[in-house]
Design a protein that fits this description.
By secondary structure, the protein is an all-alpha fold. The chain is built from five helices and no strands. The chain is elongated. The chain starts with 6 loop residues before the first helix and ends with a helix.
Length: about 120
Amino acid sequence: MKRNPVIPYILVMVFGIVLVFILSFKGLGDMKEMAKDNGKGSETTEVAATKPEDIYKQTCVACHGDQYQGVVGPTLKGVGSKYSKAEIVNIITKGKGNMPSGLVPQEQAEAMAEWVSKIK
């Protein structure tokens, strides 16, 4: 008697499909659990960043670059000579162009503007 060589491939395929469905349902359960935890994690992040440098590393570096050179957003070099400190606070809190508002907590906007205005 000859055995059918396709049967092992079919068994592996069926096993793989069943495994994909099982892991998908497991992921759905984890997604709901992670959604509950999301609110708690964001509070910790805001509290952790108190220095302007730390806030910059967490929220600004992706658009303004690690050397303040500007990537998607404009360069921050010489921004203190271009805008007054009050204008920088306004931009930080309310956003400008593609920059969204609320990236820096209101109570830290003044210190952030002071720090940004000194970037050379």
